[in-house]
Amino acid sequence: MDLRSPPRSRQLWLGAVVVAVAVVGLFVYSFVGTVVLGLFVYYGARPAHRRVAERVDSRAAAATLTMLALVVPMVALVGYAGVVAFREFAAVAGPQAVETALNALPGDPRSVSAFLREPDALVERLGRIEPLRSRLTAVATTAGALATGLLHLTLALSLAFFLLRDGGRLDGWVRERAAAPDTAAYSLLRGVDADLERVYFGNVATVGVVTAAAVLVYNGYNALAPAAVTLPVPTLLALLTGLATFVPIVVGKLVYVPATAYLLREAAVADAGYLAPAALLAASFLLLDLLPQTVLRPLLSSRTLHGGLVLFAYVFGAALFGWYGLFLGPLLAVVVVQVVAHAFPHVVTGVPIDTVADGVDIGSDPVSADAAADDGDPTDDEATGGTAGEAGDRASGDAADGD
């Protein structure tokens, strides 16, 4: 009996699939920055999640613990930066700044009852003050930008959480429904997956190492330097130096060069000499810039991809796409490398994918990446109930028993 669907039915289903893919593509295109940021967080956290999953039975608990390990330090950093910023603003503005601002407003804005009695009149009087209105507009614009950024960050973290929790199920679905393990498509996906983990995790690890080194360098400098040329808020500057490492080529120069310029000015004013600031500049360039970029990042991120390719992917990605190009550029580079190294020869020459992968050193071997992922992620089999091959073997056995 022919179980194939009629041609018209298949055409209708194909149209439905095209519409569904177009809708998903529209959402991804509209939120491409959020999606690639979520992928970056996912791949950057996946090695740690793999270790947590070895000790925790629940996939949801393992993903939650991993995300908490990322979110809690992030919240602490933002809170610390906010406290320091408020403290510095209060020191510069003086204790009478708030009182002066309140007295400059018409009426008595501190009186809630006055506002409740005549809210329209008070708003109208406030609107006549052009400087105040421009400041309120600037504050509202900044608050809106911060709210939008927080929304996208929340969505990206949520995407990373669900990928960590349900990545095994997604892999099982791909094996059973989209690309069997012995196909070129699955080998391509596995190679892309392995390379993205190496590149993104290498970036995260580099940032962490640079941050720790900057904390030691800046606080050590303050312990040895004269009081007239000490760094203000050295720990915050160290955290900012680590975050600046995301920016290719420029990296920590965004922080330690202006900080050193400030110290040189303070040394000139206090006549304290330039030796200490010059030593800080040299140590920062060597330990926070040169060594991480030339030794650490290539070692962590470029074990299978050429170091220059990774560097240009970050630079050109940021130049072409903006801030999210820092994450999208490496993703596109990895996909192109895997297509050229594996799928393209397979399609053109018909050589089996395993034969093409032998001797390829510009991208991860999809076969070894598949084996490493299966060995390293204990949640895959739990999530999918075993590989598609095992499922097929079981199904064949059942069919044989039935016959």
TrEMBL record:
Location of region: Disordered: 364-403
Topology of the protein relative to the lipid bilayer: Multi-pass membrane protein
Bilayer-crossing regions: 12-45, 65-86, 136-164, 199-221, 233-252, 272-291, 311-337
Superkingdom of origin organism: Archaea
Keywords associated with the record: Membrane, Transmembrane, Transmembrane helix
Entry's family note: Belongs to the autoinducer-2 exporter (AI-2E) (TC 2.A.86) family.
The protein's name: AI-2E family transporter
The organism of origin for this protein: Halobaculum lipolyticum
